[in-house]
Amino acid sequence: MASVIVLDACVLIAHLSRDDAHHERATRLLLSLAGEPKLISALTQAEVLVAPTRAGRRRAAEAMLDQLRIQTRELPADAAGSLAELRARTNLRMPDCCVLLTAELNSPAAIATFDERLARAASQRGIPVHADG
Question: For the structural domain made of 4-125, what CATH number should be given?
Fold first, then answer.
């Protein structure tokens, strides 16, 4: 089974906004991962779509996610307990716990993020991290 890349919202938010301080870094990272299967959780997708929705560009942002061939995965109905354990053990925000759980549920997987705390927690759990392109 090929390894998948689970994307953190910060990478996609930066890529979608030319004004973001990490825009170029995010674009390089996504280019470096072009041939890899990529996933996001439904919560991550919602995070990514907030700013474009406010700007009246939700459909364009969704089209960009499609162009990047990013698949959205729902969290299972019984994910609450696993998310609570991740939150309690890592002290990460719940959206970051969703990224970790998505990676764990789709193993073998790696995470792409610029968030140092998420990267550290992923590494401690044996999940490879991509942070630069």
Answer: 3.40.50.1010
Q: Are 89 and 82 in contact (CB under 8 A)?
A: no
Nearest one of 126, 80, 111 to 12, comparing CA atoms:
111
Given a cut of 70, whether residue 133 has pLDDT beyond it is no
- 120 is written with which tokens? 């550290």
The partner residues of 40 in beta bridges, in order of sequence, read 72
Q: What is the pTM of this model?
A: 0.95
pLDDT digits (tens, 9 = 90+) for 84-93: 999 999 999 9
Among 10, 14, 38, which residue's Cα sits nearest to residue 103? 38
Instruction: Give the CA distances from residue 22 to residues 42, 82, 86, 102, 133, in Å, rounded to whole numbers and listed in that order.
Output: 23, 31, 27, 23, 12
Does residue 116 carry a pLDDT above 60? yes
Question: Cβ(86)–Cβ(19) under 8 Å?
Answer: no
Do 92 and 100 form a contact (C-beta atoms < 8 A)? yes
